[in-house]
Amino acid sequence: MLSLFMPHSRLFSISLLAFVTACAHPRIGAGPGGGGETRAAPEESCLLSTGAVSSPSRTITIGLSEAVNPRHAPFARNDAERIVFRHLYDSPVRIDCDGQVRPGLVDRWEKDDGGRRWTFHLREGAQFWDGAPVTAQDIVFGKGGVGYTLAAPEKSVVALTFAKEKDDVPALLGDPSLAVTKPAPDSSWPIGTGAYWATSATTTAQEIRAHTTSGDTLVFKFAASGDARDLLDAGVDLLITRDRALRDYAATLQNHTVVALPWDRTYVFVTAEAGGTRLDAGGLEQAVRAEARRAEGSSWWLDLRGCALARDTTPPASTGQHRILYSRGDPTARELAGRLAALTHAVATGRAPDDFSDALAGGKDWGYVVALPRVTADACRSAKGLVPAWPATFTALVDTRPTAIVRRDVARWTVDQDGAVHLVRE
Amino acid sequence: MRFRTRLLISFGVVVMIPLLVFGLGIRREMSNRVTAEYTRRVDALFDVISADIARESDRIAARLAALKSALVADDRFRSWVVRGENRGYVLDYAGDAMQLAGLDFLQIQDDDGRVVSSGHFRNEYDRLGPAVPGSGAALVRAATAESSFLALVTSDTLRIPPRRFRLVGGIAVDSQFLARLARDPELAVGLVLPNDTTNADSGKLVVPLPPLPYVDATEGPGRVEQARIVVTRSSAFLTALQRNVNLWFAAAVLVAALAALLLAGWLSTRISQPLEARIAIGDLARQVNHDIKNGLAPLRNVFRHFAQVAREQPAELPQVFAERQGTVESSISYLETLAANYAKLSPQSERKATDVNSVVRETIGASGTVRTKLAEGLPPVSADALVLRRVIENLVSNAVDSLEGKNGTVTITTERGKNIVRISVSDTGRGMSKSELDKAFDDFHTTKPGGTGLGLSIVRRLVLDSNGSLKVETETGQGSTFIVEIPILS
C-alpha cells in the first residue's frame, strides 16, 4: 500500500543519488603541514561536490528545520544553530573535515620549546562587527582548560602552553565555544567577528538575514509550516537534515544534490547501574529514522580522568519504575529511548533540553540517552554538561550523520570536522 | 416555667413535628422516584452499550480487512517477507497504516506472536505482542514508549507464503469513548479491570455488562482475563434535588418558628399580662393589709387601755391619755406615711388632646346592648385617653349590671357644653334610692355579689384628677344617668 507514496522510479533515483553523494564526499586532499605552517592550503577535500559555480550569487538562502535562539550563541544546541553561528562567529582556528587546522581569527602560528609552547598570531584587520579590533585578550579571557594554559603576551599574540610537547598544530583553538563574542546593547545577537553580521532588526520569525560589509547576504529561512519540504520547494540553496524521508524527497528534485556529511554524533546510553544494563544494542540503527550506523571509533567520553571532573564516588540511587530520559526535540534520542524502553520494559520520558541536562547531572533516573559529538578538539570542554559526574556506565548506541541538500551551481560549501557546513566566500 | 415558654413549646410540638414529618416524607418519596427512574434508564442503556461495542468491533474488523488486502498486495512488504529487504519500510508501515485507517492501536505480529511492525509504538518490534483471543473484541492495555493505554481491539490473519501474520488493531478506550457509550449525562460508564478496585464502588448503582476478554500487555504478551463494563449513576442530580428540598424545608421551619415566636408573644401579652397584673394586685393587697394592721395594732392597744382606764379608774384617764398620746400620734403618722408611699405607686395620668367620641367607640366596641348618641364636631378634651376609657368602662359596666338581665337599654350620649364636653351614661335599670345614692361613691360599698365596692369611687377620683365633674340623676325603678364633664383643651 505504501508503495503508492514511493514509486519504484523514485526509489531508484534515491539509490543512485546516494551512490553519487557517497562518491562525492569526502574528497581527501593534501592538508596544511605541521609546525611552522603559516597559512593553510585550500581545503579542496572538504568542499561539497555541488557543481561548478560560474557566477556566485550575492544572496544565498539556507533552510532551517529547527529553532534558533540568538542567546545560545556561540554554543550551538542543534544543527540549525550550528550552521548559523558558524557563519556569524569565528573561533581562533577551524578544523576541517580531515582534521587539519585552518585559519580563523588567527592566520599563522609557530611552535617553540619542542612543542610545549605554541604562538598564534591574530589575523591582520580582525575586528568585531562594530569595528572594534579583536585583541588576544578577547580570545583568552575566561578561557583555558585541562593540560594547557592560554595567555595573551602581546595584543595580537595568543600563547598556548602545554604540559607535554605537541608535534601537530593543536586543534584546541578550533572548539566553537572559543568563538569570540561580546554583548550587544540593542540586539539579542551578541556581537561577533565573523564575516556575516545579524541583529534583532534583521531577524523575524520567518527568517534571519545576515550581511557582509561588501553587501553579500545570507538568508536563513525557517519552515513556517513545519514541513521542511516546503523550504526545498521554495528553492533554498542549502538545507541540513537528519531526516531520511526529507533526504529521499530531495533526491527527487532535479536542481539539488544530496550530500552525506561526516558521522558527527554518537548516541550513548548512560546509566548508574553497575556494569550497565544488559541490553542488546544490536540493530538499533533500525530504530531511528535518521541515517545511523552501529557506533564505532574512539569513545572520548570513556577516558576523562585528566579532566578533573568533580566526580561523585557513589552512584545516585534511582527509585521507582525504570525510566529512560531523553532530550525532547531530538527525535533520534526519542526513538532510541523508545527502543530501549521496549527492550527493558522501562518507560521513556522526554525533557526540555535544559531540564534534561539538570536531570542528567542529578542522576536520579535509571538511564539517559545522551547525544555526544563523535569527535572533539577538547574532550574535557565537551564533557561539561554532557557527561555526568557520577560513576556511570556508557553504552554507545549508534552514530548518526546529517545530510546536506544543496542547490547545484549556486555556491561552494565546505564542511568542518564537527560536521558544520559553511559557505566558501569567493 | 413561664407562661410564654410553655406557649412556645406547645407551638413547637403542634407545628414543628408535623412539618418535620412532612419534609422527611417528601425526601424519601423523591429519592425513591429518582432511583426508580435511574434504574429504568440504566436498563435501557444496557442494550445500547452492548450494541455500540458490537458495532465498534465490526468497524475495527472492517478496517483491518482493508489493511489486510493492502498488505497482501504490497510488494515491499512481500520483499521483506521473502528476502528480508526493506526492514525500515516494514517498521514504519504500521504507523502510517494506523493513521490512514483511523485506528489508535495496530500491530502486525508473526506466527510466534512477535511484533513485526507496531503503529502506536514503532520501536517495540521483536517483542511478544498481546495474546488476544482469536475472535471477537477484547480489551488490551498496550505499552507505548512513554506510557500505556487501553484499547478495544479485534484481530485478523493473513498469509504471505511461507509465513502467516496477524493484524491486531483497535481504538483507544478513554474517557471520551466511555462518555460516548453513556449518552446520558446523569449516567457514567466505567471499566472494572482485574485487580482494579477503584470502580467497584458498592455505594453506586452499578450494573455490569457481559464481561470482555482483557489482556495486560504492558510487560509482555500477558494472559486473557475478564474485564467488566459497568454503568454507574451520577448522584449529582439527586444530591442537587435533596439540597434544594433541604433548603426549602429549612426555610419553612424558620418561618414557622418565627411565626410561632410572634404568636406566642402576642398571646402572652393578651393573656398572661392581665393575669400577672391580677397576681401583682393580690400581692399588693396583702402587703397593704399587713402594713395597715401593723399601724392599727398600737392604736387598738391604746384604745383598749383607754377603755379599761375609763371603766376602772376614770379619774386617771387624762393622765393616761397624756401618756399614750405619743403612741397614737406615732401610729397615725406611720399610717399617713404609708398612704403617701402607696400613693406613689399610682400611675400618673398624662393629659393631652383626646377625642371623646373615639374613646367611647373604642370602649363599647361591637356591643349590642349599648346605644350611642354622639354629637358631631366635638372639640378635643384635655384628658388621658386611658383614664377616660376606664371611667366609661366602669360606668357602662354598672349600667349594664343595673339592668339585672332584664330588657332595658344603656345609652352613651356626648354633647358639647360651655368649655366642657359632657358624657352621659344612662340606663333603664332599677335606679337608686336616696340612701343608696348617698353611699354610692363610698369606697368598698357595693350592692353586687362579688363586687369590690371601688368602681364608682375610682370613677369619681379619676374624673376629679382630670379636672372634671361627675353628677348622678337617678330614680328608683326608672334608671340612672351618670354625667361626666371634662374640660375642653384650651
List keywords for this structure.
heterodimer; A: 426 residues; D-Maltodextrin-Binding Protein, domain 2; 2 domains; six-stranded mixed β-sheet; 20 strands; B: 490 residues; Beta-Lactamase; Heat Shock Protein 90; nine-stranded mixed β-sheet
Tell me what the structure shows.
- The complex is a heterodimer of chains A (426) and B (490).
- By secondary structure, chain A is an alpha+beta fold.
- Chain A has two domains: 1-96 and 179-262 and 401-426, D-Maltodextrin-Binding Protein, domain 2; 265-400, 3-Layer(aba) Sandwich (D-Maltodextrin-Binding Protein, domain 2), CATH 3.40.190.
- Chain A contains eight helices and 20 strands.
- In chain A, the strands form five sheets. A six-stranded mixed sheet of chain A has the order 8-9-1-10-18-11, with helices on both faces. Chain A has a six-stranded mixed sheet with strand order 13-17-12-16-14-15.
- In chain A, strand 8 and strand 9 (217-222) form a beta hairpin.
- The longest helix of chain A is centred in the first third of the chain and has 17 residues, at 8-24.
- Chain A is globular, with a radius of gyration of 22 Å.
- The relative contact order of chain A is 0.18.
- Chain B has three domains: 51-234, Beta-Lactamase, CATH 3.30.450; 267-345, no CATH class; 352-487, Histidine kinase-like ATPase, C-terminal domain (Heat Shock Protein 90), CATH 3.30.565.
- Chain B is α+β, with helices and mostly antiparallel strands and 490 residues long.
- Chain B has ten helices and 16 strands.
- The model of chain B has no long low-confidence stretch (mean pLDDT 84).
- In chain B, strands 1, 2, 3, 4, 5, 6, 7, 8 and 9 form a nine-stranded mixed sheet that branches. In chain B, strands 11-13-14-16-15 form a five-stranded mixed sheet. In chain B, strands 10-12 form a two-stranded antiparallel sheet.
- The A-B interface holds A 1-3, 286-287, 289, 334-335, 337-339, 341-342, 345, 347-350 and B 67, 70-71, 73-76, 87-89, 91-93, 96-97, 121-125, 127, 143, 145-147, 218-220.
